[in-house]
Each structure stands twice: as structure tokens, then as C-alpha cells.
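Worked Example 4.2. Consider the chain below.
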Amino acid sequence: AWLYGWHGKNFVKAILAAAERGGPIRVVADQVGSPTATRDLAEAITALIAAPSPALPPKGGRELKESPPFAGEGQGGGLFHVVNGGACSRFEFAQAIVGGRAEVQPITTADAGRIAPRPAYSALTSIRWPATGLAALTSWQIALKRFLAENPAAQH
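Applying the procedure from the previous section yields the following C-alpha cells:
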């Protein structure tokens, strides 16, 4: 997941800063992931921890060696992927962030010249989440719109 919020460095803040500086913003178009608002993720984790044990689906697939304390013997638990719905390329995400206020140019990962390798496809799905009975996270588009609307620094 590509996490973003107002604390720490992240892609959304970097794109907003680049748009503020002006000029075209070059963004890789061949990397796909799951943009996820940290607020949404924190709320989902809090709801999962507070949920009664029956809300946790049975374990399956690759699991942690030890279940978290809220998942007792015979109850659910294990590893959850929880992200805002949908996936997009970094280029598409940047376009949504600036909303037409700046020019975003697609480039390839090779053109970006990054030292650290990045996976071409890192999108996650919340496959086990529906079985908890808890509310699904909104789409990445809705989460981003809400994030930008609630943060005046992004309104430039």
C-alpha cells in the first residue's frame, strides 16, 4: 500500500509540493499500487481490535507465527491486508492529487533513475476484511478527495 497522511514524508505531500513549485511533474506510470489514507487504515485497525472475536474470520494462508493478543485459540486473527479500494499507477494517483492544477507527465521506472528498486505491481486487496463484518474502506479516489478537502494546505 502507498500510505499517506499529514505526518511524515509521502507521495501525496511530495506531489503537492512539486505542484506548488510549478512546472511539469514527471511521475512513473508503470508502477501500480493501492493508495491508502493513514486515517482510514488507523480507523480500520482500531475497529478490528475492538471487534468481538466472532468478527474475525478463520485463519488461512500465510500467517504470523504468533497471533495478536486479541485473537485467542480457535478464533480468527492472523495477517490482514486492509487498504482503500482499487488500484492505480503512480501517474494516475499524481493526476488525481493535483486535479488539473499542474501538468503531470508519465515516465517509466527506468527513466526515473531511482537507486532503490520499486515493484511494478504492489496493489493489495482486502480479501479477508469482508468476513469480519466491519465496514469496508472507501475507494482510494474518495479517500483522497476527503483528505484534500479536509486539509487547507492542499487547496492551493
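The chain is about 30% helix and 10% strand. The mean pLDDT is 87. Compare this with Example 4.1 before moving on.
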